[in-house]
Fold these 2 entries.
Entry 1:
Amino acid sequence: MKIPRGKRRGTIEGQQREICFPLRWGVSCEWGLCSSDVRIRFLMMRIVLLTDIPVWVKPLADALGTLGADVVVAASIEAVPPEGLIVNRLSTLLVRKDPALSRSYIDALKNWEREGRTVVNGSRALALGYSKLAQAKHFEAVGVGTPRTHPACPGERAIPGHRVLLKPEAGGFGKGIRELDENSPVPTNLREGSGGWVEQALLEPSDGCVHRVEFLGTRILYEACSTLRAKDYNYCLANTEAEVVLQGEEDMSPRAVREAKQVAASAGMELGAVEYLLGEEGIPVFIDLNPVSSLHPKAKDLLLEDPLSLTARYLRHRSKS
């Protein structure tokens, strides 16, 4: 049931009365017991989970449901209702499968933002998640370290004389990434229609690890340190077989904390992760920004609470702000 803007209806038992309160658009209703003899209808803000892979957001939708949220899982632009908090959970795999559709999602997020809708992980975060080249430019603009990154040209080299990683512009799970030695040209048979490819200078981290910093709003939930594996670029934290060490913000270097927060905030990313390697003298060198990262299954042991529950509470709070 929908209630017009500016009205909240309730019933006092034994009387025919209407109780009116100011309210916002995008709410749905249920009954709540306010006292022993008064029953008032209260309102829940709608939360829209925008995704191209609905099964991925089911745990979050269930967690929000336990908090009494009115959850809509929208698997298309058309499925997004005209009210409620929009939470972007679109995967970076989409840009490889359908570049045109991925651009449509960016445009849709921009339109909702212009309309004044509240969007978590909005158009800027999504656009950056879709492009390794845009990420490199973002890191440079923020003023943090990042490897040299250039568009790849088949049959040539953008960074001659150096070992590089050849990466798809977007994707996930390390798919398609390969290493080229100092003199090998970029292959001429790169798959077209996948959003392009980049050359990125290969960096050997000083501690032999990849560091992923997981965010919830402006808060760092944890940092996950994974041992670098030769020829393996899949560091998805849902893989519990990998050797991963989790630590809290208080155990990170102050510089890594400061720069990771700058990177996430300037990207407009409230949910997701940034990755960095440690270069010479332990200086962070940022290599990735992922607005749809996977929470580590053992993060609960560090946080003493399920990070999914923390995320649900955060989104409920954002829906009221």
Entry 2:
Amino acid sequence: MPWQRYRQKTPDIVKSPKNIAASIGYVGTTSRHLETKINFNNPEALQNPANDAQFVRPFPDFSATQYMNYAGESSYNFLHATLQKRFSSGLSFLATYTWSHSLDDSIQPLGGYGGPYRNTNLIPIKDDYSNSEFDVRQRFHFNGFYQLPFGVGHAHLNHKGIADLIAGGWAADLKFSAETGQPFNVTPDISTASGGNAFAIITNRNYLAPGGTPNATNPNVKCPTRTRNTTNWYNPCAFSNPLPGSTIPRSGAGSLVSNFTQVLAYLGGKRNEVYGPGYERVSMSIFKQFVTYREQHLELRVDIFNVLMALDEKVERGSFYAAF
């Protein structure tokens, strides 16, 4: 087993004026010889979908045969910024922002999602180097706490009584989280070549923009006037189909396709090129403290989750792929 190699760079800049700390940093890593899952018994040629790919496998008496290979590579770039206010005058908060990008050609050995290779016997895994299945480009998190300056032990109404009972001891905590979505695969809506995993080809990188005209490879698709919703998250008119598998002759000359350029034309684009919906949540807590004896107190707490009632518009992962 070869050694797995990692390289990392982590410069940081930190500023810390009175009660506030700010930092910005960058992390960059590259990895080599990652463990990945390879099917060495993939068909050695593409065929018409009516043909059985079993007969063009290196070992036709066996089906898919997977083994762990240490040929994977990855890169990860991570820029983060943090702003923190230490607790003073009843207020504290922590805000963090992250931009990152992870790429790899290493499918997780223990059943990771992210989509399979197109065909490792016809397309080297380096040509399936694409966005990692867990890649999230942007994240923002905020956590703030504020304590009203009223009641025993505070600047105002610092004595027991009715006023302290009503107005004293109140505090609130607010949490906000937002992040962009993860990548998934868009599959063709035609009968593709036998012997490989085919994906749709992106013809317009702004695949979330509505409108447009259908691609000639899929003339019957409708171009939605609105996207980023549960009906049409992306615009199907931003994609084209690879060559139909039916264009390969069933027998004779040209019935076995193994030329690299032709294989790409039949199997389409890379995995994980389209990103799904993101995530936004606001939650808060309200606290009320009642002084009981000396430094002891009774606290009542109310937690409110998903204050804005945001809905999850998730694209299911795993064995599901969004077809256009």
